[in-house]
Structures are given as structure tokens and as C-alpha cells.
Input
Amino acid sequence: MSKTALITGASSGIGRATARALDKEGFQLVLCGRREERLKELQQELTHPSTVLVFDVSDYGAVKQQLASLSDTFRSIDVLINNAGNAHGLDPAQSASIDDWDAMIDSNVKGLFYVTKEVLPLMPKKNGGLIINMGSIAAKNGYANGSVYCASKAAVDKFTEGLRLDLLADQIRVAAIHPGLVHTEFSAVRFKGDTEKAAKVYEGANPLYAEDIAEIIAFMVTRPLHVNLADVVVMPANQGNAFTLVRQQ
Ligand SMILES: NC(=O)c1ccc[n+]([C@@H]2O[C@H](COP(=O)([O-])OP(=O)(O)OC[C@H]3O[C@@H](n4cnc5c(N)ncnc54)[C@H](OP(=O)(O)O)[C@@H]3O)[C@@H](O)[C@H]2O)c1
Output
């Protein structure tokens, strides 16, 4: 029987590329996000059975209700990819917006916790379960103007470590992947739809692409059951840490 993976943030960027990669590996997929149309479009191109759940990860009631609505075909979740999240704003703490801070903590931190809490009862014990949390290089180094985004990803990093210990006896593996700069809609969201400003982030940067991360996630997910790639940091070759990247002229 095919294994099932649930991916949050499957409507764009890394999540969408991961859905395509895991479909190629033969997984059934539960595709989650707020933009239903995009999820349905993605569903059309997949070759294995999939279902769509539309919810905001920061709304605990919606998370609970949507996961409870899964049909028997998708109720046993072998792999959870906790990917949904974004940065909102790039401003010093003195002038940053509280609404941006709330949005990052609510989705990147609380949302990831809520989804994990509701998926755990659906994960078979001692049968190769795996949770991959989407961290960031921002979890490892704080950078100027991004203190709360970095803090949100540092929270994911520490949650991952604690959860791994909690689930040892159940033999559910817990891992995190921490990408550096990846060319997705991330910067367009961060700059609230200012696509010109977003494009500048990637100019001459030789960034990673969503497919690079998806390929690594597919590798993590397809390891033998005794292997857990617990903490994976991946950056473009010309990036040294969260705030040092050499641009091509
Ligand atoms: N791009 C990078 O450079 C980079 C680097 C390190 C880590 N990351 C992390 O990678 C993850 C994916 O980002 P991306 O680069 O692929 O950006 P993206 O293209 O903007 O995708 C973000 C995804 O998250 C979903 N999402 C955001 N907030 C949500 C919420 N409250 N409820 C439900 N879904 C939500 C979005 O779906 P809907 O809008 O349809 O809900 C979308 O599918 C994020 O956790 C991000 O922090 C990105």
C-alpha cells in the first residue's frame, strides 16, 4: 500500500515542489494551504491519489476540523512535512509592525505546533513515521531587520529537538531542514506584493530553487527506517550564513 504524506504550504514554492517530488516517489498526498484553487491545480498534475485541505495553520479550530475530516484513505499519515510559513516585513525591531510579528509567530510557530499536535494521533507508531519541520538558516543566525522571523525559525529548531525525544519510543523520526536563500514567492510575501523589491533579493544571488530543497526532502523521506537525517542545513554555494552572500556582478 502507498504511504501518505501531508504537506502544509503545498500551494507554492518549496511545498509545491515537494509535493511533485513525493508524488514521483509514489506517495499519496494530503495537500494543505489557504489557496484552494492552486492546490486543486497541483492535484490535477499528480499521478497518485491526493486530497486537498484548505485551512490557515494559525487557526487551531480549522486545523482540528480539517484533519478530522480526512477520509479513511488518507487518515493514516506516514510523513508530515511542516512547511507552511513566511516572513512578513524586513524592518528593525524599533519600527517593525506588531501585525507582521503576530503573523510570523502565529503561522511559523503556533501553526506548525497545531498541525503537529493534530497529525500525531494519525501517525502509525513503529512503522517508519517521519516529521520534517521547515526551519531556515535564520534559525541558526539572527540577522538585522529579521529578528522575529529568525526567532520564529529558532523556535521550530528547538521544537524539533524536543519532539524528537518525545517520539523516540514511538519510533517516529523527527527532522528539520534549514535552507538558505531559495527563489520562491517568499520575498514577494515578505514585501507585501512588491515584486520589484522581491526580485532584487535574488539578483546576482545564484539562489537555490524550490526543486533543490524538494529533492533533498525526497531523499530524507526515502532513507531506510533506521536512518534519520535529523538536521540538514543547505545553502547556495555562495552563501556563508544567514547574512553573508556573495553576489555576482
Ligand atoms: N524561500 C526561502 O528563501 C526560504 C528559506 C528558508 C526557509 N524557508 C521556509 O520555507 C517555507 C516555504 O516557503 P517558500 O519559500 O516556499 O515560500 P512561498 O512560496 O511563499 O510558500 C509559502 C507557503 O506557505 C503557505 N502558508 C503561509 N502561511 C500560511 C498559513 N498561515 N496557513 C496556511 N498556509 C500558509 C502558503 O500557502 P497559502 O498562501 O496558500 O496559504 C504557501 O504555500 C516557509 O516556512 C519558509 O519560512 C524559505
